[in-house]
Amino acid sequence: MTVPGSPLESLLSYYEPLCTLRRDFRGAATLHTPGSPLLGANASYLLPGTPQEVTPLLRVWHEAHGAPPLVVVEGAAWGGAVPGEPVESWRVGVYRPQPEPGVIVVEQTSRLHLSRFAGVLAESHDLPEWAAPLARSLAGPLERLPDAVLLLAYAGGEAIGALLWQAGAAHLWGTLDPAADAPLLNAAAWLADGHVVTSLPDDSPLTLEGTREVTFALLSGTSSGTVGA
Length: 229
Hints:
Elements: H1 7-15, E1 21-25, E2 28-32, E3 44-46, E4 50-51, H2 55-64, E5 70-74, E6 84-95, E7 105-109, H3 114-124, H4 131-143, E8 149-155, E9 158-166, E10 169-175, H5 181-189, E11 196-201, E12 209-219, E13 226-227
């Protein structure tokens, strides 16, 4: 099974409802969310066919709005594909439930516990200081997403993982212990037909179907050609 559409389209459709502003320009879609640490909600998506001569204009726009000139492309961002410094790479694909020991408990949590959810998520990405801003940035969008589900993973009563599921995808998640990765994603997969579209870091041992890589990079300079053609 493959990701419906392209990996970038999956990420874009997932993060757009969580962002403050979307701007489209010559094939690139920019999401901007002041006060949020989410890469996916603060990047320009260089969709297939986007001309690379657009990148200097994107950089100017990001910097004019006080945001790092972050872009996301399918495939590696080095080797001349995109003029920039790679920040992070994800594997995007379809996840199906995988074996796990059963000692981690995963529960759906109320939006009244958004602060706890955001705290676990921020800490799992080594950004504990962003817990409160993340909770504030998610509060409004979640009011407009009645079908979105917040999941928390627990070990011994302590929350060690958090995941936001919406529309069959779960790109925003994190754990304090890798042992919670599979239980958390398993629970997300069972929310709809036994599979979920998600993103994994390069070093994750978990497997995906139809895996394709996306890379976030900070723009630095100009180039010619087309991204993803």
